[in-house]
């Protein structure tokens, strides 16, 4: 099972130094996530769509991913129009749809999707290994980066172990349903996965100490910031500032 | 369920970030380099748990198991959950960078609370099953409450949505209770040192 769908490629964004991409992603996400007007949210969506085009990813996979991620947004659409206080624009019996609720749900949808597309095009175009090293050189504590790098390394292994146990259960005619037997079986499958992971962690830890592990994780990849990286970061920061300026300017026009 | 980017207000995002920063700092400070591997592999195990779908009536829910993680890891739950959520964000785009603090706190704070409330009772055989159920159910319930609070504090108009969030957590809470209960009793029989060996909890020797 591969988790990293988008990290393969040769586009500009795949080649940009991950440290610069992290900083750009944080700046853009902040201004988009906190914007309160439709105009600046749409501006943000535009910026992230441009980045998505630059990243040249498989459009259908991105669309599929967006569909999955929008479940929380769908939940808000079910709740907000009916429960958010405001002017009623449509009523049927006890159900009232408020203008403000619809507007807010729409704004959140645009903002959330802008940020998700941004995340895919800026961060998911790097491997977690590169992101982990980039975070460390940005000043994130090394213990945290080690946990990130090691758990990234072992997710596929642990998942394979769990899948093997689940397959064995299927061969023995285990059919999941809503009953106690199912919950007990899942608990035992997961418990066994935990036991195996635990012993694996001890084994790997011993092996690392044996090889003189001193708390540093050396990478063969040495980051080199190029002039292109600086230009990229400059453009991204300029985009964030203009979204924020748009937000402030627009709210001044309204009030 | 994670809160998406773009929903919460700045003060809520900021306080979530600060609280997660503090929790992670405590977790990392108590954790020495020898036990990093354990925390890392447990973080990936819990990532895998979130991929396991358990049937519930006509639909299914995925496991969270933050109660179990809290009982096993104590304060190290903060860095472990932060890592697992960051990986989920990079792999599946659930959650995001700016809400990462809030989402981590909502899951990790109940884990640490369960560690203090429930772990002492796991040693005694007659309380073990009940304590396991309590860890699973309480941690999900509190996660639901924290998530509802982050919504309600962001915008008073979110109040009904927040109530709905808590209601939606109730069935998940019961399932998590049973799964945590069975996992804890399983671990106690198969590999007790995970639960109460001298090296068991990486941060509380």
In short:
The complex is a heterodimer of chains A (255) and B (205). With 255 residues, chain A is mainly α.
List descriptors.
heterodimer; A: 255 residues; mainly alpha; two-stranded antiparallel ribbon; 73% helix; B: 205 residues; Arp2/3 complex 21 kDa subunit ARPC3; 2 strands; globular
Describe this entry's structure for a reader.
The complex is a heterodimer of chains A (255) and B (205). By secondary structure, chain A is mainly α. Chain A folds into 2 domains: 153 residues, no CATH class; 70 residues, no CATH class. Helices cover 73% and strands 4% of the residues of chain A. Chain A contains 10 helices and 2 strands. The radius of gyration of chain A is 23 Å and the shape is flat. The N and C termini of chain A lie far apart (53 Å). The mean pLDDT of chain A is 87. Chain B is mainly alpha-helical. Chain B has one domain: Arp2/3 complex 21 kDa subunit ARPC3. A two-stranded antiparallel sheet of chain B has the order 1-2. In chain B, β1 and β2 form a beta hairpin. The radius of gyration of chain B is 16 Å and the shape is globular. The interface between A and B is large, with 85 and 72 residues.
What is the element layout, followed by pairings?
The complex is a heterodimer of chains A (255) and B (205).
Chain A: H1 12-15, H2 18-34, H3 38-55, H4 59-69, H5 71-83, E1 88-92, E2 95-98, H6 99-122, H7 128-137, H8 142-171, H9 180-210, H10 227-254
Antiparallel strand pairs in A: 1-2
Chain B: H1 10-30, H2 36-49, E1 53-56, E2 59-62, H3 66-73, H4 77-92, H5 100-122, H6 125-154, H7 159-190, H8 192-196
Antiparallel strand pairs in B: 1-2
Helix pairs in contact in B: 1-4, 1-5, 2-4, 3-5, 3-6, 4-5, 5-6, 6-7
